[in-house]
Design a protein that fits this description.
Maf protein
């Protein structure tokens, strides 16, 4: 077995419970400090530039007040036919979004950024995942939009929750659709030296050799 060694403090610049759970499940120790960045300030950018710029802005905002820490910022959008589907604000919004997605391929883009002010480090990237929904009946759509799931999620659905019944296939990172590309984020934290791996088995053998 392996354990993760944390060489520096990590901050998640997001109040998303899904991103928090993804990092916790990956064994990362971190604190949460949501950014104050307003997403509407970046809406005129092209989709990939939008999520990358917004993720970096969120990380920079929190890093400015915590210069010794490594700050992770992220933003996700659902894209279909070059149209961005934001979080639905009403039942009719949710219905329209799920109807658009029904039977078609859409793309989930997540921009993520890792920033440390004291080392002058800024790394940002965008991960793309393709998702295909099955053709939904009116009854299925009505049932789903009357659950609590759609209303705080881009595109109006949760692949990790009740919304999983709608997903016919996925090409790319699953965690990216949930809200954070865990594989890519952890790989980058390793490359930057923020975290490292240590084998528990090796550690036990080392201690045994000293006895």
């Amino acid at each position: 077995m392996e354990m993760i060694i944390h060489n520096s403090q990590i901050i998640l610049a997001s109040k998303s419970p899904r991103r928090r759970r993804l990092l916790e499940n990956a064994g990362i120790e971190f604190t949460i400090i949501p950014s104050c960045v307003q997403e509407n300030d970046f809406l005129l950018l092209k989709p990939e530039n939008y999520v990358r710029t917004l993720a970096e802005a969120k990380a920079q905002d929190v890093a400015g007040k915590n210069p010794d820490s490594w700050v992770i910022g992220a933003d996700s959008i659902v894209l279909i036919n070059n149209s961005i589907l934001e979080k639905p604000e009403s039942e009719s919004d949710a219905r329209q979004m799920i109807q658009q997605l029904s039977g078609y391929l859409h793309v989930v883009l997540t921009g993520y950024s890792i920033v440390c002010k004291n080392t002058s480090t800024i790394f940002s990237d965008v991960i793309k995942t393709e998702v295909i929904f099955k053709k939904l009946t009116d009854e299925e759509i009505e049932w789903y939009i009357h659950t609590e799931e759609p209303y705080d999620k881009a595109g109006g659905y949760a692949i990790q929750g009740l919304g999983s019944f709608m997903v016919k296939s996925i090409n790319g990172s699953y965690s990216n659709v949930v809200g954070l590309p865990v594989c890519e984020v952890l790989d980058q934290l390793y490359r930057l030296g923020v975290i490292s791996r240590k084998s528990k088995l090796t550690d036990r053998k080392t201690r045994a050799g000293k006895n």
